[in-house]
């Protein structure tokens, strides 16, 4: 541990498995206190708190697309740890893939709600909490995707949601900076990360598309999020950090 996040309090949505858990592990290692949220994986949330210790971690069940649930998470964070320094908007879904003309409005809206509207709600809640509890200082990290940089032909809703998250990041960062508010907003764009959602049958073919010859690990995203949450990144604002093994080089 090098205490790069010592004294900081972070909310990590979707923080109990996959990339989110990787971020949480890096944050706790670096001295942060973490509030982890998930909607369905409640057992994973309790397991994460048992692993990290309830002195430095808290689990709150949350539907990230529900504004009342954001109030619940913020209230629990402040009640437990007294302030908010960092928000990592990580929760997301892939949704239904296929041709756009075959996609139902319901399937489209679900992806937009969880991947984009939830980022808006999270930013809004975090900014207000940082103003009230942290002298209007902090860092917001939106976990987008390489699909927010280059469209995926059979994932129109996912690409649109992640592209929207990217532009929301830019707009919010500029808005805050232009008003002299010291809350930075940046986006992270993972490529193929080795998590349970990767189909086993597709792994070999996926790896062939990655110039470095292997998929990333959740900690690869966690380390970037450590940098963006720490004071080391004080001049990084409204920026995009692509972590994809060279696919977009």
TrEMBL record:
Q: Which key words are in the record?
A: Oxidoreductase
Database matches in InterPro entries: KR_dom (IPR057326), NAD(P)-bd_dom_sf (IPR036291), Sc_DH/Rdtase_CS (IPR020904), SDR_fam (IPR002347)
Q: For this protein, what is any one GO molecular function term?
A: glucose 1-dehydrogenase [NAD(P)+] activity
SMART domains, per this entry?
Answer: PKS_KR
Which Pfam family would be a valid example here? Answer: adh_short_C2
Q: Where is the Ketoreductase domain?
A: 8-195
Q: What is its EC number?
A: 1.1.1.47
Instruction: Provide the protein name.
Output: Glucose 1-dehydrogenase
